[in-house]
Amino acid sequence: QMGCTLSGACHGQVGNAAEENLYLGDNLMNTPAIIAQVYAGLVGVPALEDPAMSLIAKSDTSKSYLSHKVVGDQANFASDCAKATLCPDQSCTPATPCGTFMPYLGSMLDPAKVTTINDWITQGAMNN
Questions:
Q1: Strands (E), the chain
Q2: Sequence-ordered list of residues with C-beta below 8 angstroms from that of 25, at least 6 positions apart, any chain
Q3: Which residue, 9, 12, 86, 111, shows the most beta carbons closer than 10 Å to its own?
């Protein structure tokens, strides 16, 4: 999602601990090496905000933390957010234990984009 990588303050830079170290690529040019790096950092990798879930769990949106973050329902499931190693800028509260939806301080993603993300996960989160 281009808007997620527009700024170095978000997911457009490698090793950004304040953003769960979640690098989503280069906004200008995603080379095959960058695409491989992004994929390796997403699929099967535990979410820092909820370590009971992977960022992306192949074929299972209910266990894919990224899906919950873009849908905005991460407060509605039993989570291990209390064990989290990260919750940036005080966005975790009793009402939103895993922080706010993404994109942070933005509008919810277009439903078609959310469907595309969730369809990719459901279809096995293939790297192609």
A1: none
A2: 5, 12, 34, 35, 38
A3: 12
Q: Provide the 8-state DSSP code for 108.
A: P
For residue 118 the two structure tokens come to: 């969730």
In angstroms, what is the C-alpha Rg of the chain?
14
Which residue in this structure is represented by tokens 């808007």?
Answer: 3
Kindly report the pTM of this predicted structure.
0.78
CB 4 within 8 A of CB 113: no
User: Could you report the per-residue pLDDT of 75-110, keeping only the tens digit for each?
Assistant: 666 566 656 655 655 666 666 667 777 777 777 888
| Cis preceding linkage at 51, omega within 30 | no
Instruction: Give CA–CA dist 22/40, Å, rounded.
Output: 11
